[in-house]
Amino acid sequence: MSPTATSVDVKTLIINGENVSARADQTILDVARENGIFIPTLCHLDGLTDVGACRLCLVEIKGSPKLFPACVTKVEEGMEVDTNSERLVHHRRTILELLFAERNHVCAVCVANGNCELQAVAQTQGLTHVRLPYRVGRLEVDTSNERFVADHNRCILCSRCVRVCAEIEGAHVWDIMGRGINSQVLTDLHEPWGASSCTRCGKCIQVCPTGALFDKSKVGVSHPKHPEFLPYLNMMRDGQ
């Protein structure tokens, strides 16, 4: 323990009946993953600021009727957390059904089939069908960029592209406009991607969990992604 550390810096809590310890600045998601406890996520990515957008990481905390997003909820002394109750399973499946129903996520014809986090999470949660009526719109497919494509029909509004562009690249090209079902990611002041201030670095492609952003040269072949580079980039940036 460092000379400046005190007992106040360490919290003891219970997750799924297991006693665990954590630093005071950690979130429930951090601690769960350190202890091999699975909590599904889509908007979370190591190296990016958490925003609690997808709500898949909701957990129950004893003493409260509310559900809490694990990625942005800090640990507290004596906290008792349940990550996999029947209530949570129901909520997560409903959230996934809403995501699949709102836009075009037909895996069989998607460029990211087999390499899609939405697809993978649905499998972990046992989602076999969607009970809700589909609201598949006809949003634009922006092919104006010389290298990349933005298919807004496959976007789940996780905001990973927004955060990686701002926090890692420092370009602030991406943002989200609109509200509710009309929300959409955009480049600059809603200019075509090819006419925007995009640096063509490709980081947004690497972190997109679905086939919403993809490389034109990879159509029809596998789409390897390497989001694990983000913590390394953060470390190098902080060391400068």
Polypeptide structure, described:
With 240 residues, the chain is an alpha+beta fold. It folds into 2 domains: 7-84, Ubiquitin-like (UB roll), CATH 3.10.20.740; 89-229, 2-Layer Sandwich (Alpha-Beta Plaits). 24% of the residues lie in helices and 16% in strands. Strand 3 (58-61) and strand 4 form a beta hairpin. The two termini are 26 Å apart.
Sequence stretches where pLDDT stays below 50 over 5 or more residues: none
Q: Architecture of the largest domain, CATH level 2?
A: 2-Layer Sandwich
Helix content: 10-25%
The major pleated sheet works out as: 5 strands, mixed
Number of domains: 2
**Rg result:** 19 Å
- Strand sequence of the main sheet, in spatial order? 2-1-5-3-4
How would you state the average pLDDT, rounded?
89
Shape: globular
What is the CATH first-level class name of the largest domain? Alpha Beta
Straight-line distance between termini: 26 Å
**Fold-level CATH name of the largest domain:** Alpha-Beta Plaits
The helix count comes to 6
**Strand residue percentage:** 15-25%
What is the N-to-C order of secondary-structure elements (H for helix, E for strand)? Answer: EEHEEEHHEEHEEHEH
Tell me the number of strands: 10
Pairing-aware structural class of the strands and helices? alpha+beta
